[in-house]
Amino acid sequence: MLRSILLCTGLLLATAASAADPKPEIQRQPAPPQAVGATHTLRTIPEACARLEGRFTGDQVKPYAFAAVPTSARCQPRARLVDAEASKVSVANGWLLNDVIRVPSASCPSQQAVVRVWRHASPAAPPKLDAQGRSRIYLKDQLETARQGQLGAIPMFAVAMAVEGQACKKPG
Fold first, then answer.
1. How do residues 104-118 score in pLDDT, each as one tens digit?
2. d(Cα 157, Cα 145) in Å, to the nearest integer?
3. How many of the other CB atoms lie within 10 Å of CB of 153?
4. Which terminus of the chain has a lower count of CB atoms within 10 Å, N or C?
5. In this structure, are residues 42 and 54 in contact, taking their beta carbons and an 8 Å threshold?
6. What pLDDT digit, counting tens, does each position of 62-85 carry?
7. How many CA atoms lie within 13 A of 1 on its CB side?
8. Distances (CA, A) of 65 to 38, 105, 170
9. Which candidate, 36, 43, 162, places its Cα nearest to that of 108?
10. What is d(CA 172, CA 165) in angstroms, rounded to the nearest whole number?
11. What b-and-e string marks burial along 98-125, b requiring 16 or more CB atoms within 10 Å of the CB?
């Protein structure tokens, strides 16, 4: 009897914990295991002209190196990419969990890098249709809107990286 009560309590706590975590907009399986030293692309964010890449270092202190690198020198970003911790990202502040990328280590299966990508929900509406039924943006109108300080919010993405699981001991 006590065992079944504990089992039910554990299931309820696990269900409550998973319900508290926001569900990402993009659902994906974990990436294939990556070898130490192999740089791999995690995701590209075209709006921010950035590619997220990482690699396992084999170092006990800092086991995973992570960076956001520009996709092209000529790319014009339409969104900002910021650090999630510095931006105090939360659902209460209007952020949506966009993606969770899990990358296991090939040399240490109990350890994985987890990258969370958040997207700020900015209200963006397409331009109104003109008399011909087309959605058009005119430079003169946009310059006037900018002079009046009525530009819309710039879309933002925030990225946080963590290493989860047990660290493996080095042989020797």
1. 999 988 999 999 999
2. 25
3. 11
4. C
5. yes
6. 999 999 999 999 998 988 999 999
7. 0
8. 11, 12, 18
9. 36
10. 22
11. bbbbebbbeebeebbbbbbbbbbeeeee
- Cα angle vertex 30, ends 89, 43, to 5°? 55
* Average pLDDT taken over every residue of the chain: 82
Quick one: pLDDT at residue 151?
A: 72
β-bridge mates for residue 40, sequence order: 54
Report d(CA 129, CA 71) in Å as an integer. 33
Amino acid at the residue 45: I
Residue tagged 């331009």 (tokens): 127
Q: What are the extents of the domains in the chain? A: 23-124+134-165
Cβ–Cβ < 8 Å for 34, 109: no
Check residue 113 and give its pLDDT: 96
Contact (CB, 8 A) for 46 and 78: no
Alpha-carbon distance of 88 to 117, in angstroms, equals: 13
Whether the predicted pLDDT of 55 surpasses 70: yes
* β-strands 156-165, 80-83 pairing: parallel
Between the CA of residue 49 and those of 69, 70, 124, 125, 151, what are the distances in Å? Answer: 8, 6, 19, 22, 21
